[in-house]
Every structure is written in structure tokens, then in C-alpha cells.
Design brief:
The chain is α+β, with helices and mostly antiparallel strands and 91 residues long. Helix content is 38%, strand content 30%. The chain is built from three helices and six strands, in the order ββββαβααβ. The protein has a three-stranded antiparallel beta sheet with strand order 5-1-6. Strands 2-3-4 form a three-stranded antiparallel beta sheet, covered by helices on one side. It is globular.
Length: 91
């Protein structure tokens, strides 16, 4: 299991690209081995992971945007899965 740090800044991993795919009507992550279609909440979270913004700030922005309290566990779960799949990297 990867250790997700709320103070770290995450971004789409090198060799991967996140883009809107018109044919899928969804955000996707493209990489040499294929493509993954993101649901709306995952896409909104990963779009905010720019490599400059700490994950704690991303969580706060999402909570404010969606008026949902305590999205921390959901965001941590997504980032952990994305790290394990190699879709994101962090520092």
C-alpha cells in the first residue's frame, strides 16, 4: 500500500495524460498501455492535482465546491489507488 500524504503535491504521472475524451463523454487518463475512464468525482479530484497544490488544499477546495464535509477519506482512497496504478506521482 502506498502512503498518501496530505501535505504532498500530486500530479498526473510522467507518461500519462489526462484529457476530456469526447467519444467517451468523460475525462480519461491515457498511457502507453491503454486508457482509464474516470468518474466525475475522480476526474474533478485529479484535475486539481497539479503538482503544486498540497492534497490538503485539494480536499478543502472539493469540500467547498460540493458543500460536503470531510471528503478526506474519499480523496485519500482515490489517490492511493491512483498511486498504486501509476497514474499519479507525488512529492
Amino acid at each position: 500500500m502506498s502512503e498518501v500524504d496530505l501535505e504532498a503535491c500530486y500530479r498526473i504521472a510522467p507518461g500519462h495524460r489526462m484529457q476530456w475524451e469526447e467519444a467517451q463523454q468523460a475525462w480519461v487518463i491515457l498511457y502507453p498501455e491503454g486508457m482509464v475512464r474516470l468518474n466525475d468525482s475522480a476526474a474533478e479530484t485529479l484535475r486539481r492535482c497539479d503538482g503544486l497544490t498540497p492534497l490538503r488544499t485539494v480536499v478543502a477546495e472539493l469540500e467547498a465546491a460540493y458543500q460536503e464535509p470531510d471528503l478526506t477519506a474519499d480523496v485519500l482512497e482515490l489517490i492511493e489507488a491512483a498511486l498504486e496504478q501509476g497514474w499519479v506521482s507525488g512529492h
